[in-house]
Each structure stands twice: as C-alpha cells, then as structure tokens.
Amino acid sequence: MAKICVLLCFILLAASGFANVSGSEPKEKKVGIYELKKGDLSVKFTNWGATIISLVFPDKNGKLADVVLGYDTIKEYTNDTSYIGAIVGRVANRIGGAQFTLNGTHYKLVANEGKNILHGGLIGFSDVVWKVQKYQNEGDAPHIVFTYHSADGEEGFPGDLLVTVSYTLLGDKQLSVKMKAKALNKPTPVNLAQHTYWNLGGHNSGDVLSQYIKIFASQITLVDSHLIPTGKFASVKGTPYDFLKPKAVGSRINKLASGYDINYVLDGGVGNKLKPAAVVYDKKSGRVLELSTNAPGLQFYTSNSLKDVKGKGGFVYEPHAALCLETQGFPDAVNHPNFPSTIVTPKKPYKHNMLFKFSTKAPYAS
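Structure tokens predicted for Aldose 1-epimerase:
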C-alpha cells in the first residue's frame, strides 16, 4: 500500500507525460527528462529511478535508432514492474529469505518476490525521485549526476546511505556510468545495478535471439529453483551458459526453462580497474555494444518475463525483446561468506564503474 501511495503522488504530478523541471516546486522533487548529446550519440534520462529512457546512435548505414526499451510517459515508468532502464538497489538482484545477519544483528527486509527480496524491495531505488545534482549538456564531456538519500530502515536495510550516480558521454560514442554510495552511520549491504534493456536492432525490432554475445566469464554462480545462489560455482564450459566465444543469444536458449537469468563470475577477479564484461553484436544493423566494469559479476538476463508490455510508440514488448547486462556484486552475497563482500561502512565507500562503447565496427569474425 505504501508503494501505491507514493506512486499515485507522482502519477498526478506527471499525468500528461514528463513534468517540466522549471517552476516553483523544489527542483529535487520534480520528475523531468534530460538529454546528453555528443556527436551522433544521444541519451535521455529521467530522475525517476535515475533511469535511462533512450539511447540513439546510427547503424552501419547511418540510420538512427533507439536501442533501449522504454515508455513514452513518466506515468508508465511509475507503473513499470520490470525495472526498465532504472538504477536498482539498495541491493540489486536477490537476497534469499529477505533477511541477513550483520555484526550480530539480524535484519528482516521487505520481501517482494515470494519470500525473497528482489532489487531493493517493494520501493527500491528504481521507484523514487532522485535529485539532479549536476546537469551539463555541453563541452567535451556532457554529464548528469543524480543523488539519493536512502534513510535508515528503508525496506529494512540498516543505516543512512548517500548514493550518487553519474552518467557521462566520453570520446567517440562512449557512456560512462559511475555509482558511489557512502554509509553515513552504520555498515550496510550495497549492490547497485543499471537495468537497461538493450536491443541493438532498435527497441521495436523484435527479439534479440539472432544477436551475438561474448561474455568474459568462465564460471557462473549456481542457483536454486527460486534463483537464489547456493554458494557454489560452476564452469560454463559444455553448457548453454558458455559465451566465452561469441554465439547467438538464441543458439541454445531452448535448453533453458525460459531464458537466461544468471550471474556470471567475470574473469579478472575483484579490483578497481575496468575489465571486459561483454560484447554484443547485431549483424543486421552492424551495431556493437562493448561493456567493461570493475564489478565482479554480470547478470545476463534475456527479458524472459516481458509479456504484452506496451512500450514506446505503442510497440509491444514480448519475451526476449531485449537483453540486460547488469554488472554487480554477486547475488545474496550477504548470506555467502565465500562471495566478495558487498558491505559498505562509513570508512569503506562503494564504487562501481561501467563503460559502454558503441560502434559499428564488427568486434569478431562470425
């Protein structure tokens, strides 16, 4: 009920579409639309969920297309249940039993997927209004910075947390995403993810099963029937999860129950430096997405749960209409001491970086 009340307030604010960011209401409470543009790459955002709502760049013939799924109005984003384009947290992915113990204290969270918690709970970071701290759409590095103060006890998580997400256009068709979080008074788990749904053929081009992907990971974290990690790892070799060499997304998807929704253990280990995570290539359009990150994991998700979702321009999104590349800490890390820690303290802040490179240069022979 609490989530419904919050959403109704912003639906009324933006019933006719995206709200204007000017006016007498405090800027940080406005829901607006913002654009960054550099060369022939343009990206639009809303501060509802610090969300990417469009990304446009040309194909091999110079034809522009929007390659991310989304909606036409803010009302549709507030009603969204698929986290389309948003920042998810305080803890992305799942925590088993919606509970954990930290420093001897047991915390019970707000379950929103059966007995488990997914992407931060009933009202996660994808369902709040972020403050626009900086916005500059000119110069060599156009950028926008969103901030959010997550209160102690929000969705059951301990401690006040100050979160910052920066989107910056760099070089030739590059999008840098930097996430930071500072625990203000208590240790707390933090694991943010960017949940854009990508389709390099264009958001309205159909499914992504013929697009090729390479994932720089030799292992996955095994999960149970509820997609909660068991704490064990498994090699991808000889399985449908093996994308160490580029393969079509749909080449072995029929061997899985509904599609891909698994955390990959990225090669290169844990560290602050960027390492390659994935490369996606759409042969028809020639578009390429290269992703690197300093995060240890990558959730590869083929939008299995999308069904009859009315998107931009009235186009209807169905299963496998896009893929998500969610760099992250490992799911349920708070309950698995053998996973890299996701605990943030006042003395140990959270830093998570991603770099997306877009081009039409074939990344590998196929």
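The chain has one domain: 33-359.
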